[in-house]
Structure formats: C-alpha cells, structure tokens
Amino acid sequence: GRRIGYVFQEPMSALNPVLRCGDQLVETLRHHFDMDRRAARTRALEWLERVRLDEPERILRAWPHQLSGGQRQRVMLALALCAEPALLIADEPTTALDVLRQRELIELFGELRRELGFSMLFISHDLGVVRHLADEVIILDRGRVVEQGPLAQVWRAPAHAVTRALIQAMPRLDEAPWVAPAPAEEPVLEVGDLRVSFAERRSLWSKKKRHTAVDGVSFALRRGETVGIVGPSGCGKTSLARGLLRLVPATGQVRVGRTDWMALAGAALRRARRHVQLIFQDPVAALNPRLPIGEAILEPMRVHGLHDDEGERFERMQALLEEVDLPAGWHDRLPRQLSGGERQRVCIARALACQPRVLVCDECVAQLDVTIQKQVLELLLRLQQRHRLAMLFIAHDLAVVRLVSHRILVMDAGRVVEEAHPDELFRAPRSAMGRALVEAARWGAQSL
After folding, report:
1. First-to-last C-alpha distance (Å) of the chain
2. Burial level of 88, CB count in 10 A (0-12/13-18/19+)?
3. Per the domain annotation, does 252 fall within a domain?
4. Considering the chain, what percentage of its residues have pLDDT values greater than 70?
5. Per the CB 3.0–4.6 Å rule, which of 154, 156, 193, 443 could disulfide with 252?
6. pTM value?
C-alpha cells in the first residue's frame, strides 16, 4: 500500500471520525516506517506544515468534524504523501479549497513531485487547475475517453464537444453577473455581533482552551437578495452558517423576520428552523444512504406538520423533484444511485420542502464539475426568483460568487474585513484579504 497514495474527493467520508487527525497520521507513519510514537508525531507535524496548514499543533489534536472542508482535504493530502508513494492518485484534491489555497497546493504539488519523485494521476473537473499541473490530459464522458493528448494542444484546439463544453462552462471574470438588481425590501435575516468558539484541550488532563471561529460578524439579508461570503479555508465561513442556524453554540443577535432567533429553545426553535434551511457542502454526508430520496424530502414536511395529509405531501414531494429538474419517478431511488449533481438537487428540494424564507448555501457547488455547477447555480437563481428567497451563498470560488451575489462579505480570521458590491470588490478591493482573493482569482482565470 505504500507504493500508491490516494487523496479522496470527500475528506469527511474518508477520515475516521472517531480518531483525531494527528492519531491518523501517526498510525500511518508507524505502519510504514520503523519509528516510535514520538518520532511519528514529530513527522506528522512536519507534514501538516508541508501542506500549508496553519496552527499544525491545533490540527494535530483536532477531530475531523472540527475542521473546515479545506483543512480536512489538506489533512488527507498529508496522509497520502507521508508514506512517500511512487504514484499519487489525486481525486479532486483542490475541490474544497479557496483560490488562495488552491494556488499554494498547485505549487506544493510541483515542489513535492520534484522532491519525492512520484508520478501523479490528477482527476479534476477544474480545468484551470489541470492547466497548471498536467503534461497530458484525458477527457472522459460516460466512462469513455473522448479526447486525449498534450494539454496545450487539447486546450488550443479541442476536438470533442464535451471538451468544448467544459471550457465554455468555466466562470470568467469578464462575464456579466447573472442576478438582477436586489429588491428594496425589509431584511428577512439580521445578524449582529455573532461569535462562535470551540473548547479544545491537548489531553484529558490539560486545561481547555477556546478557539474563536467567528468573531463579531454583523450583516443583514433582504428577501430576494443574495449575499456572498468568501474567505480562505478555516476563516469561519461554515462556522458562521452553523452559528446563525444554532447548530453550534453561539452568542450575539440573530433575527429572522421579527423573531429573535437566539431567544428560542425547544419546540419553538424546532418550529422556527423551517424558515432558514441549510444546503450542505457534501451531499453524500448530508443524505441518509439508506433512505430513498423521496423519503428524505417527505421527512421535513412530516416533522413540521406541513400539508393536510400524506397524499398531499407525496404530491408536493414529486413536484419538488420536478422543480429541481429530477424525474418525479425517481422518488424511490437511493442516494448512491445518483450523481453528485443529482444528490445536490435532492438536498435543494429537501430544503425547499420546509417553505423557507432563507437558504444558506455552504459551498454547495464546490464538488461539482463546471457544467453541472453552472446548471445548479442557474437552478438556485431560478428558485430564488420564483419563491423570493433570501440566499446566503458561502463559497471559496470568487468567480462563482461574483456571478450570483448582490453583495460580497470578505472574511478573514473569523471577522468580516470588507463588504462590497462584486464589481467594486474586483475593481478596488480595500482589505488585504480582498486584494489577495481577487489576485488569486485573476491568476486562475489567466490560466485559461
């Protein structure tokens, strides 16, 4: 097993949820090399530093669920490379990373490949990333190779329709935004001085230490408006979403309409939850693998007592499947029978089943190829217009956020460091993080 390393597409599914990240690295190192636990721990720290993870000591002690998607993916990269394989198979390793970390990882792949001398099979839907890394490219469609050759040749003169579609679907910085001007309505979601922190301890006998993930964030969201949230991996984007949804302990003010969200508890909170729904980053982890997709959509309607009887709920479930461009007859299929894009459509239908006022989209297109990503984004905007939904759109791809957002919040180290209209952000970013994200987005676009 040491000769081949594998970086999986979905790190939350690949990492052991009941082992700390450091223990998983130590276990791998001790299995492949003759070293004691202390030496393995030192080597594990070195690998976490090599994959550019901030606070490696904290990551070493953390459980996988305490990390952001980007941080988990880089732990997976360290696990794959720490045995120094001859071949690295990387299955969408940069999918969950922001543009800054993508650029760092692309450069890191080159450095480590030269240093360790491994070959690499790089699987990706991100053509910009492929352009930076590959010597040759293979284009697949429905399990068959439809085009193959030197990357520069395929890029300059794509011969197959699938290749041309992939290139044309890439978000571009000179493309006009897809959203109409935001309606002038009262805020449906108001967040004030929101703070989220987690208690950590080094061992059973050490004192707990607080790690602040969200530090005093405030903003408002109007009906029919999309606010984009961008920032580097680990900056607190997902913790912000979970905090305002009361999925993790948080302090501050959150109002949904006229309801003080933070004052609710028990049955009152459960009833109110249907008004703010979350579309998760990883649809595989978000859907029960043993539950047919129709039941997954019916369940929230039953929980909240929506519609008069089971017959009406079943009709509504079928209508929701069709609304997200899936056949109503698929209601008895299991999640494993669907593609990644189809599973994410099911998650969108499940969120809509609650008749929400606000959709929180947490990296909901990050794991999709560019053609499916464009379809899902167009679907979300169509649903927003139809239902007058307010959307909080969290993503690391600034080019995508620019297309679908009326305003953009830039986060860094748990704080909002800049708020701007998308065009204003790209024209003259005011914060250091805003400038870094815009520069990285332009660097990615230049590769095309």
Report:
1. 36
2. buried
3. yes
4. 96
5. 193
6. 0.79
